[in-house]
From TrEMBL:
It comes from Haloplanus litoreus. It holds the Pfam family THF_DHG_CYH. Catalyzes the oxidation of 5,10-methylenetetrahydrofolate to 5,10-methenyltetrahydrofolate and then the hydrolysis of 5,10-methenyltetrahydrofolate to 10-formyltetrahydrofolate. Homodimer. One of its GO terms (biological process) is purine nucleotide biosynthetic process. The keyword Amino-acid biosynthesis applies. Its EC number is 1.5.1.5, 3.5.4.9. Keywords: Amino-acid biosynthesis, Histidine biosynthesis, Hydrolase, Methionine biosynthesis, Multifunctional enzyme, NADP, One-carbon metabolism, Oxidoreductase, Purine biosynthesis. This is Bifunctional protein FolD. InterPro entries: Aminoacid_DH-like_N_sf, NAD(P)-bd_dom_sf, THF_DH/CycHdrlase, THF_DH/CycHdrlase_cat_dom, THF_DH/CycHdrlase_NAD-bd_dom.
Length: 289
């Protein structure tokens, strides 16, 4: 019988949205109006749906957005030029590029073209460097979401044996860095890891961002583990994470649901980062944090 505690994201997401909207008011009072521009290089309906949600979220907050969706066979030059042009546009205050990009597009070349002061997901190499140096200008939205979710549910990170499955630059790597910064002992696993189950069974905090439904089942976790399932995988009948919920819940102390766990907080963190980079660029004081 399922026994694990549900680490839901909706409540903490609502709270953070409230904070962001307060700062948005401060921004507007100071004459700074955010505009988010996004770039997607994909024709996958799931990617487009996720992008729709980002724009809906901003529309609900009354934030202007601009959306450029390019086909997956768009030339690398076209992608680089699109990002650079949006970055140079003075009315765009916040810029987000969806990854992963098609293989023929060099992600680093894209990252370099996002102006650091408009970067809402800690993509520019200078912002990554500042994050690692402990002087963040902006934090990656998904790792911020995981941190806020665990803190909101009073789940300790310090001292844990954390295993992060996935080393993607936008998600896995920042998550590992977060766990390390918060004093966990961290193991990072990926597709070439030998005996993944042996590694995941050693975790008392398991964070998975592999994008592979059913990757982690009950035989791969130990009793009392806290499981953070970051992945959002579209399958027939809805979305699932990486975790086989039924068998993992037999052993886990707590688990984030999919949907309704990390996802809502990621959206709230994106909104908060859009407002924050706009406010910072305009020199608006942060009264709320
Ligand atoms: P990614 O860049 O493709 O990274 C996936 C990682 O998983 C890679 O490091 C890969 O290893 C590893 N991996 C794949 N299959 C594996 C396996 N069988 N065993 C062990 N490791 C395996 O993907 P991403 O952009 O990080 O996204 C990961 C997931 O997060 C996706 O499901 C995405 O939809 C989801 N997501 C969630 C949110 C949210 O708010 N909840 C936000 C954005 C994305 P290699 O490096 O060896 O290839």
């Amino acid at each position: 019988m399922a026994a694990s505690r549900c680490l839901a994201g909706d409540g903490p997401a609502d709270a953070l949205r409230g904070v962001a909207l307060d700062r948005l008011d401060d921004c507007r009072s100071a004459g700074a109006d955010p505009e988010l521009a996004t770039v997607l290089v994909s024709d996958d309906p799931a990617d487009r749906t996720f992008m729709d949600r980002k724009h809906d979220l901003c529309a609900e907050a009354g934030i202007d957005t601009r959306r450029i969706d390019l086909p997956p066979d768009a030339t690398a030059e076209r992608v680089y030029r699109t990002v650079a042009d949006l970055g140079a546009d003075p009315s765009v205050t916040a810029l987000f590029v969806q990854v992963p990009l098609p293989e023929h597009v060099d992600e680093l070349e894209v990252r370099r073209r996002i102006p650091p002061e408009k970067d809402v997901d800690c993509f520019h190499p200078a912002n990554v460097g500042r994050l690692v140096a402990g002087d963040p200008r902006v934090r990656p939205v998904t790792s911020r979401a995981v941190e806020r979710l665990l803190d909101a549910h009073d789940v300790r990170i310090a001292g844990r044996d954390a295993v992060v499955v996935g080393r993607g630059t936008a998600i896995g790597v920042p998550l590992a860095q977060l766990c390390c910064r918060r004093d966990a002992t961290v193991t990072v696993c990926h597709s070439r890891t030998r005996d993944l189950g042996a590694k995941t069974r050693a975790a008392d905090l398991l964070v998975t961002a592999a994008g592979t439904p059913g990757l982690i089942d009950g035989s791969m976790v130990s009793g009392g583990v806290v499981v953070v399932d970051v992945s959002v995988n579209r399958v027939s009948g809805g979305v699932v994470g990486d975790v086989d919920a039924a068998s993992v819940d037999e052993k886990a102390a707590a688990r984030t649901p999919v949907p309704g766990g990390v996802g809502p907080l990621t959206m709230a963190c994106l909104l908060d980062n859009v407002v924050a980079v706009t406010a910072d660029a305009a020199g608006v004081d942060d009264q709320s944090r």
